[in-house]
Design goal:
Residues 162-180 have a biased composition (Basic and acidic residues). The protein is α+β, with helices and mostly antiparallel strands and 180 residues long. It has 4 helices and 6 strands. It has 2 domains: 6-84, Alpha-Beta Plaits (2-Layer Sandwich), CATH 3.30.70; 97-162, Ribosomal Protein L9, domain 1. Strand 4 and strand 5 (106-116) form a beta hairpin. The two termini are 27 Å apart. The chain binds iron/sulfur cluster (SF4) and FE2/S2 (inorganic) cluster. The site of FE2/S2 (inorganic) cluster has 12 residues, from helix 4.
């Protein structure tokens, strides 16, 4: 059962993107093209987020569903979301924050309405490309690291031949690793 979100934020279906990993009390959703390997999830709950195993998300290894949700909320890119069964969806941060990552994207937290090539997208967390080279704009896809983009360099732009338009396959990460 789902309930209305608090504070008028995104609805549960807005945040249920990507592949679902269901447990008894919580379902974790993983939207692979949005993952840039920050690895907050792996550090936070290594028993659940196991990138060398299949499936790589094993929600059944943590009895405390609220702890799973807590770690999912540390994912800065919005690659991970959760649904606590019978509970409201993740509440957006108030006020909205925008934080530049050194040599990387802008990370946002709040009640977000993002205009994307696929239409408007409701979000609570996102990492937006500022190097110009992402193949998944407006989102960061990790390309900034591969091309050595520096946020303090004059102009801050990647060379034109490095402005990728290739899109990572489902499960394909910017550094070539795969997750299913
Ligand atoms: S971006 Fe999110 S899902 Fe990807 S490794 Fe980092 S915390 Fe985990
Ligand atoms: S800032 Fe990460 S791909 Fe552009």
């Amino acid at each position: 059962m789902t309930q209305d979100p608090v504070q008028g934020g995104p609805l549960p279906d807005d945040l249920a993107r990507g592949k679902a990993y269901a447990g008894d009390e919580v379902t974790v959703y993983y939207d692979a093209p949005r993952c840039v390997h920050v690895a907050n999830c792996v550090r936070g709950l290594p028993a659940v987020f196991r990138p060398r195993e299949r499936p790589w998300i094993q929600v059944w290894n943590e009895a405390d569903a609220a702890r799973v949700a807590e770690v999912v909320r540390t994912c800065p890119t919005g690659a991970l979301h959760y649904a606590l069964h019978g509970a409201p969806p993740e509440a957006p941060a108030v006020p909205t924050t925008i934080t530049p990552v050194t040599d990387g994207p802008l990370t946002l937290r709040g009640d977000l309405r993002l205009q994307t090539p696929a239409g408007e997208l409701r979000e609570v967390r996102a990492a937006l490309c500022r190097c110009g080279a992402s193949g998944n704009k407006p989102f960061c896809d990790g390309t900034h690291a591969r091309i050595g983009w520096k946020s303090d360099q004059p102009g801050g732009q990647a060379p034109p031949d490095q402005r990728g338009d290739g899109h990572p396959e489902e499960g394909q990460q910017a550094d070539g690793a795969r997750r299913d």
